[in-house]
Design a protein that fits this description.
L-arginine/glycine Amidinotransferase, Chain A; alpha/beta; 36% helix; binds N~2~-(3-carboxypropanoyl)-L-arginine
Length: 430
């Protein structure tokens, strides 16, 4: 059974505004000059690598930015240029939110429960409300529109709207599925945060996790808390310290508050359960967070499993030494390490796993996905040329009040939609 990965194409407004408290990379790089063109090319290169590994690959589109709807809802008015300028003079942080290209991190687009796990035998997706951070909360409506277009076939898919904003939900980044094989019924692990009194917010509310599982009709669930220490070390999502594929859990020793209980349950519930765990004594939480070792995409390939890692993991000697040992150990299926340059996204705290929404599908369900969201080598070539032509080379966060940048980003998006044959009206919330 194939796994489709939908990567977020990095939008033309990608910038470093430092909007995410608790995301150490994003706050450390606040104010730096970004390179949207290089960022999008790095992402497309990753998508090509996945295709070449034999995996179906698709994309989700950048959202329309700047989001002037957010600014008008906040009481600014005037024609588009005036609106941007006056809002920027008065509230540059709000304007930075309206520009955010954060929809690129599609692990936060939705939670996905494959058909094998659900009561009605369909694939269920719940759009994440991303309620904890204002720049991310604005994504939900456009994500719903896109997913309803891509997964319109009701015989195979149910796309649920976001949960009420009172309960933060950040999608697949806090969800793992373990199953002996992709097509076998799996155990879905919902990881939530608490971190009462901590410096950084927990973004996934336990009630949201339960609601998603309930809506999807997931038959076998585990609910487990993130370790507060991991959140305080910068693991604002579980996928910064853990990732699962098939029967394998690849995680840091300090990822989970109730580690022993979780591991015992998985060992009982998942035939062939295999833990590949980095001991804190060898790889500290700080190393895990700065290298994004566990934000690797762990995927099934011909000879076992492959990890798609960010270059930062190779550059940390402790992390790389441990990874070499993992690769040599015959006791686990991780055979290939692929290192990718995703520096632009990484500087905003988004690694290989953040950039993709994975959906395990039968061949029939895959054939029912709107093909405009799917990629092949030729389409990737065309998208690379399009990005080279239309995406801004650099954005200084100081430029976010400049209406010319707005024109450039709008032209880039229009070129993208034309290339993919998708009309703006089709993306409206349905
Ligand atoms: O929500 N960064 C994103 C990164 C999301 C990573 N996703 C996963 N772990 N799955 C976030 O913190 C930074 C944008 C800024 O500061 O301008 C940002 O939103």
């Amino acid at each position: 059974m194939p796994e489709l990965n939908l990567d977020g194409l990095v939008g033309p407004s990608h910038n470093y505004a430092g909007l995410s408290l608790g995301n150490l990379a994003a706050t450390a790089n606040a104010g730096a000059v970004s390179s949207p063109r290089a960022a999008a090319l790095q992402g497309l290169t990753k998508m090509r690598r996945m295709l070449r590994l034999g995996l179906p690959q698709g994309l989700l589109l950048p959202h329309d930015r700047p989001n002037l709807g957010l600014l008008t809802a906040m009481g600014f008015d005037g024609d588009d240029r005036q609106l941007l300028c006056s809002a920027h003079r008065e509230d540059p942080v709000l304007v930075a939110a309206a520009w955010s290209a954060s929809a690129m991190w599609t692990a936060n687009a939705a939670t996905v429960s494959p058909a094998a796990d659900t009561a009605d035998g369909r694939t269920h997706l719940t759009v994440a409300n991303l309620a904890t951070m204002p720049h991310r909360a604005q994504e939900a409506a456009a994500t719903l529109g896109q997913l309803r277009l891509a997964f319109a076939d009701r015989r195979h898919f149910v796309v649920h709207p976001p949960l009420p904003a009172s309960f933060g939900d950040e999608g697949a980044a806090n969800h793992m599925r373990l199953a002996t094989r992709h097509e076998a019924p799996g155990v879905e692990v919902f990881v939530y945060g608490v971190n009462e009194g901590g410096r950084f917010p927990a973004r996934q509310h336990p009630r949201a996790s339960r609601a998603v599982a309930r809506r999807h009709g997931v038959r076998r669930t585990v609910f487990t808390p993130q370790a507060d220490a991991a959140i305080e070390a910068g693991a604002f999502h579980n996928d910064v310290v853990a990732v699962a594929n098939g029967p394998v859990l690849f995680a840091h020793e300090q990822a989970f508050a109730e580690r022993e209980r979780l591991l015992a349950e998985l060992a009982r519930e998942v035939p062939g359960f295999t833990l590949v765990e980095a001991p804190a004594a060898e790889v500290s939480l700080a190393d895990a967070v700065s290298s994004y070792l566990f934000n690797a995409a762990l995927v099934t390939v011909d000879d076992g499993m492959a990890l798609i890692l960010p270059r930062e993991a190779e550059e940390n000697p402790r992390v790389w030494r441990w990874l070499q040992r993992v690769q040599q150990d015959a006791g686990n299926p991780i055979r290939q390490l692929h290192v990718m340059d995703l520096r632009q996204s990484m500087r905003n705290g988004g690694g290989p796993a953040c950039l993709r929404l994975r959906i395990q599908l039968s061949e029939a369900a895959l054939a029912a996905v709107d093909p405009r969201f799917l990629l092949d080598e030729g389409k990737l070539d065309r998208l690379m040329r399009l990005v080279e032509r239309w995406w801004p080379e650099a954005i200084d966060p100081e430029d976010l009040g400049n209406p010319n940048l707005m024109d450039q980003c709008r032209a880039a998006r229009a070129a993208l939609l034309a290339e993919l044959g998708i009309a703006e009206a089709e993306l409206g919330q349905r």
